[in-house]
Amino acid sequence: MLRYFFCAILVAIPLFSANSQKKTPAVPTQEEWVEKLYNSLTPEERIAQLFMIAAYSNGNEQHVADIEKLIREKKIGGLIFMQGGPGRQAHLTNRYQQASRVPLMIGMDLEWGLSMRLDSTMGFPRQMALGAVQDDSLITAMGEEIARQMKLIGVHINFAPVADVNNNPNNPVIGTRSFGENKFIVASRTLAYMKGMQSRGVMAVAKHFPGHGDTDKDSHETLPVISHKKERIDDIESYPFRKLIQADIGGIMTAHLQVNDLDRNYPSSLSEKITTGYLRDELGFDSLVFTDALNMKAIADRYADGEAELLAFRAGSDVLLFSQNIDRGIERILEAVEKDDKLALQLERTVKRILRTKYQFGLHKSPRINPDNLDLRLNTPHAFALATELEEKSITVLRNRDDFLPVRQLDNQTFASVNFGDAGNFTSYLNRYTSFTSIDGSLPTDDLLNKLSTYNVVIAGIFPGQSEEALNEINKILNTIGKKSRVITCYFGNPYELEPLADLPGLLVAYSNSDNARLGVAQGIFGAIPLDAKLPVSVSVKLPAGTGLNTSSLNRLGYGIADAQGISSRTLEKIDELAREAVSIGATPGCQVLVAKGGKVVYSKNFGYYTYDSIKPVDENTIYDLASVTKVLASTQALMFLEERGLIDLDKKISVYLPELKGTNKENMILRDILTHQAGLWAYLPFYAQTMKDKEFLPDYYAPSATPVYSMKIADGLYAKPLVKDSVWHWVVESRLRPRKDHEPFDYKYSDMGYYMMQRMIERILNQSIADFMQQNFYDPMGMSSTGYKPLDRFPRDRIAPTEQDNFFRKSLITGMVHDQGAALFGGVAGHAGLFGTANDLAKNLQMLLNGGNYGGVRYLQRETVMNFTDQQYANNRRGLGWDKPLPGEWYGPTTEYASKQTFGHTGFTGTAIWVDPEFDLIYVFLANRIYPDAGNSKLLSKNIRTRIQEVIYQAIWDFRSTQEAY
Q: Which class of enzymes does this protein belong to (predicted)?
């Protein structure tokens, strides 16, 4: 009995010293404990062991007193906790167990986890969603996790899984509680769930025997009738129960069903033919049988107080749930037992079976529940990660015409989202992959059609609450749009409602409207995660059970829970403190911080405001001036593109590609030396000063308003002649080099100057501006829709964080125009500065590099190119080609000392930083406008905020590893 379910109990052997005078009492064996306790009970108390009654941790003190009175006076067998909270329930369980002379079995109805009954707890997907999941091991893991949580609050029995084969779409009570309509799938999923729970010492109770799946009535309201022959019930309905019995499930709950071919006289829960004859004798079940709730109208409306309890006991049930009248139930059973020796023997067997179960739960040791920090111990990151994975794995692709999913091409297409119902943040999740225009689904049909018809791709979200009439109308709208555009329809809810949409060319179903489902669908559409689920029930002839198309991963950046990627989410929360410190001390008005690991964004938060007046808060769409990060994400990547195509040789002189440098002090500079900042160039030269005199703008260069001659905007109220770029280039060429000793190479000195030359070389070879080239070949195809030069050409000013109140050169607040003065004189497009973007966008680019040059199914760069440019080039110079690197063993390096030697990245004057660590599969992005309103603000640097945050990231990895080792 219960061979699979109960874990071995380890009994500590006391150690005795030579002087020991006392011996620890021996732990009684199971049979010793059962016999002693059984013999101490009166006949009424023995019968009371059969009863489990409802208890509510959100009940008032009178309710608590009533329960405690029943426990003390009747010696009831157990409690079924219903609604309430985990902490309150834990305290009440300790109180009730202390009041009971016979330990109480505690059960709950937790089909999808503690959230089914308790507030402030987490939940898992419903069973129909799990029926779509193709990996049973995930469902086993869910069972283990639910059991772990249950044991923390002292619950021994879960009235799950639902083993009903739901082959009637009109079933009013089972529906999404079932794993589906296929008996083999229901059997495999229920087995997986059961094994997970019972491996952790919680009893699984399968329900509702012999099968509630093919009913059109709710037994809470009336008595459903099953008209099938026994052969059909053997083949379909009881099949999952048969498999569970063979696997030693701990309990089975009988249903309130009129199964005429098995017993015409009594419902299955009260039928001896079904409970004893069929379940016990024919199927061989010898563990605990529970009735369904006896207060349900299917029973309560047909039987007098005490009668149903007696019939259920006589039928062979061990545990009677939700009796409407315990006193009368005990009386009726006692009367029958006193008159019938066979029933008396049955009572003894039943009570001893219950007591043995209590012993196997460890209740003979009178355990107490620790209620401290329950929230943290219940709602662990691991549990959330598992729930997220199950939700993602359940998303089912039903239609995918022309294999459009996952969406590969993001550039040269326009995207719109239209939502019908409560979409939550679905559109914002889509926007993480490319730019979407959101169209209101409640618009009149003609207006909706007119707006949507201009887009190449339309993602339609349909959310719960739609009537059949509404779904038919939505179907017409989407079919009309589909004649011109690609339409992907995402349905969030019960799949039985999908029939009106069955012919749509692109169709996905998620089985709930949870946040995880919405994010998972967005990830699936764009290939951040593969999808392989199968429909667990038939929607229509065109969409039968088992329908489901596989889509592949395109290695796009996903979004997940840190612990699932091997990094502690709780440790990462310390980043919040550092970011808030930065804002509170005035190191920056606000910032974005992003961490990705294993191809998933595991931390992405926004802090503070655009400015210190705290009016506009920073969000994930806030665009920042990236400053010198431009060097690597624009110029260096363009050079990587050129080098791997043989268009440049890094060991040749710059004058090979820019002949105008011949005869100058730049002629013999080697590209590799320029990119590693050891070509002898000065760090920075204030070219803008040569366009001014006595702090006034020279009219040869500037005018206060735009004209055909002064057409290049430098700042609000300041326009320049485009020819000023030629002047800047002339000053670059004529600039002196740093001093050095004769016959010695130049040492390392970080410099902007070389990137003026890099830009000129790149644009000459490509015959295209670096801005257009990068936008067309990198940013747009990767879905970096907020990244690029000159953001005011595409975005409203209020999306862009301001930089400096420039009182020396531009004499205005700089917002949406490059802060760097030299880049400003280049019209905002330069090799060393001028790029703007968001943390989310930059993470995509960095993930491409971490993937070895591949992203979204597109190869941007060769892996060898990425490795070459990001490797350290010289022993006495930490730099890669363009990329910065750690400085091992030095506190003043650009990264934490924990970063591996493979790490590469860059920082920017405005407060930005990007770092990639391939050894840890790690990305870190920090964006800020620390120079608002004064570029002299060095607190971000002096307080080492960016590096301290990076240290927390590595600490989170160590903490996760140590936790796993301890576990």
A: hydrolase
Where does residue 796 fall: left (phi above 0), alpha (psi -120 to 50 degrees), or beta otherwise?
A: beta
| CATH 3.20.20.300 residue ranges for the chain | 49-378
Those residues whose C-beta lies under 8 Å from the C-beta of residue 288, and which sit 6 or more positions away, are 203, 205, 250, 251, 252, 318, 319, 353, 354, 357
- CB-based burial label for 962 (10 Å; 0-12, 13-18, 19+): exposed
Q: Which of 292, 318, 673, 917 is catalytic?
A: 292
Residues of the chain with CATH 3.40.50.1700: 395-554
- The closest alpha carbon to 695, from 818, 806, 824, belongs to 806
Instruction: Tell me how far CA of residue 948 lies from CA of 572, 578, 600, 944, in angstroms.
Output: 12, 8, 22, 6
If phi over 0 gives left and psi between -120 and 50 gives alpha, with beta otherwise, what is residue 417?
Answer: beta
Helix (H, G, I), strand (E, B) or coil at 926: strand
Sign of CA dihedral 15, 18, 22, 27: positive
User: By the 8 A CB rule, do 718 and 706 touch?
Assistant: no
Chain center to CA of 549:
22
Please name the residue ranges forming H helices in 851-896: 863-870
Q: Which residue has the tokens 């961490």?
A: 595
The bridge status of strand 78-81 relative to strand 51-55 is: parallel
* In 785-908, alpha helices (H): 821-824, 839-850, 863-870
The whole-angstrom separation of Cα 476 and Cα 734 is: 68
For residues 411 and 456, what is the distance between their CA atoms, to the nearest angstrom? Answer: 11
Looking at residue 893, what is its pLDDT? 84
Phi, psi dihedrals of residue 192, rounded to the nearest 5° = -60, -45
pTM greater than the 0.85 cutoff: yes
d(CA 299, CA 324): 10
Active site residue 292: yes
What is the C-alpha to C-alpha distance for residues 315 and 323, in angstroms, rounded to an integer?
A: 16
Closest residue by Cα to residue 509 from 672, 617, 399, 384: 399
Per DSSP, the residues of 369-426 read ---TTHHHHHS-HHHHHHHHHHHHHH-EEEEEGGG-PSP---TT--EEEEEES--TTH
**Which bin fits 113, alpha (ψ -120 to 50), beta or left (φ > 0)?**
left
Q: What would the DSSP string read from start to end of 3-17?
A: TTTPPPPP-PPPP--
Mean pLDDT by 10 residues, the chain (967 residues): 42 34 73 97 98 98 97 97 98 98 98 98 98 98 99 98 94 93 98 99 98 90 94 97 98 97 97 98 98 95 96 98 97 98 97 98 94 95 96 98 97 97 97 97 96 97 96 97 97 96 97 97 98 98 97 97 96 98 98 99 99 97 99 99 98 98 98 98 93 94 96 96 96 95 90 97 98 98 98 98 96 97 97 99 99 98 99 96 90 90 98 99 99 97 97 97 69
Q: 886 with 878: CB under 8 angstroms?
A: yes
What's the CATH class of domain 49-378? Answer: alpha beta
State the Cα–Cα distance between residues 584 and 112, nearest whole angstrom: 42
The residues facing 209 across adjacent strands are 254
Task: Give which of 155, 79, 196 is closest to 367, Cα–Cα.
Answer: 155
User: What phi and psi values does residue 617 have, to the nearest 5 degrees?
Assistant: -75, 150
User: DSSP secondary structure string, 30-73?
Assistant: HHHHHHHHHHHS-HHHHHHTTEEEEE-TTS-HHHHHHHHHHHHH
312 phi and psi angles, rounded to 5 deg: -65, -40
Of 3.40.640.10, 1.20.5.440, 3.40.50.12280, 3.40.50.1700, the CATH number of 395-554 is 3.40.50.1700
Cα gap 822→689, rounded to integer Å? 10
Q: Is 917 an active-site residue?
A: no
Of the residues 135, 220, 234, 716, only one is catalytic, namely 220
Are 908 and 627 in contact by the 8 Å Cβ rule? The answer is yes
